[in-house]
Amino acid sequence: MRRGILFGAGAYITWGLFPLYWPLLKPAGPMEILAHRIIWSLVAVIAILAVTRHWAWIKTLRPKRVALLAVAAVIITVNWGTYIYAVNNGHTIEAALGYFINPLVSVLLGVLVFRERLRAWQWAAIGISVAAVVILAADYGRLPWIALILACSFGTYGLAKKFANTGSAESLTIETTALFVPALAYTFFQPHQTFTGHGASHVALLVGAGVVTAVPLMMFNSAATRVPLTVIGMLQYLAPILQFSIGLLVQHEAMPASRWVGFLLVWGALIILTVDGLRAVRSNRRRGAPLPEPVAEAA
Questions:
Q1: How far is CA 137 from CA 57, 132, 247, in A?
Q2: Does a structural domain hold residue 45?
Q3: Interior CA angle at 11 toward 133 and 179, to 5°?
Q4: What are the backbone angles phi and psi of residue 115, rounded to the nearest 5°?
């Protein structure tokens, strides 16, 4: 249990520190960073699979599963690209908002896709979050589109992976393989690529994008097999809390009073959702009902 908590905390803390990493890759633009992340993630995950000699899963692949993972690859590309753009262009706090509201999006997807019936407190949490988005839209002078794209893309990505029912390392292998050729073509043919001409440290940082993508996934896998889902569900908030803190305290992004109101409402909705979920888990355990599905790993 202790080791599992450490692995889980390590995974979510790593994801939470991403806003400090992607700006180091400048002058590369978001699209170039995204392309290198895809390329080197495939290299990193293949290296990990080779070391662990974990190849038997390839025999279980079926066209339907591969197609679902290809769809997931497109969705996560949108998520990764939006996130890199956000943290490299002064929108880290809004990116953190996307991952704060992601659990609420997942609840809504449960209603829309699986026809799940929400409890009263879940409806209350969703209502509060909608009010928060309205307040934040008034504050920004626009919809918080970065947060909404991140939350919706990651929610639908988790849905696709649920249907595919494939482990994280295996899934990342298929997803990055599907995207490898377009990513490689972009790095070769885009006119202002920065991979060469900016020193060895820049090359190392771009290559490192694959390592920082693959390693926390491995830690998440180790945590998910050792600790209860309720603990993983609590640990997932480490990532957006760190992202928010970096945006506020390190990158000094603006947080006027009206924006604080919107965030406080979102946090209130998450507290309601978490407490209600813990009560539901305890009730299910008493009745011997199945526990909820595992939460998805962060992007």
A1: 45, 8, 19
A2: yes
A3: 80
A4: 55, 35
Q: Is the dihedral of CA 193, 198, 203, 204 positive or negative?
A: negative
Average pLDDT of 263-276? 92
Q: Are 239 and 20 in contact (CB under 8 A)?
A: no
Residue 275 structure tokens = 């407490």
Q: pLDDT tens digits, residue range 105-152?
A: 888 888 888 888 888 988 999 999 999 999 999 999 999 999 999 999
Kindly provide the b/e burial profile for residues 106-118, where b requires at least 16 CB atoms within 10 angstroms of the residue's own CB.
Answer: bbbbbeeeeeeee
Residues 204 and 118: their CA atoms lie apart, in Å, by 48
CA distance 240 to 46: 29
Tell me how many domains the chain contains. 1
Nearest in space to 1 (alpha carbons), one of 238, 232, 240, 286: 232
For helices 168-189 and 199-224, what crossing angle results, to 10°? 160
Whether residue 292 lies inside any domain: the answer is no
CA distance 263 to 159: 26
Helices then strands, counting H and E runs in the chain, come out as: 12, 0
Query: How far are the Cα atoms of 1, 20, 177 from residue 195, in angstroms, in the given order?
Result: 42, 20, 21
Q: pTM score, two decimals?
A: 0.90
Structural domain of residue 118, as residue ranges? 2-287
> Using CA atoms, how far apart are residues 22 and 84, in angstroms rounded to an integer?
7
Q: Alpha helix (H) ranges present in the chain?
A: 2-16, 18-21, 30-52, 63-87, 92-114, 120-140, 145-164, 168-189, 199-224, 229-235, 238-245, 257-287
Whether residue 124 is contained in a domain is answered as yes
On whether residue 90 sits in a domain, the answer given is yes
Amino acid at 2: R
> How many CB atoms neighbour CB 265 within 10 A?
19
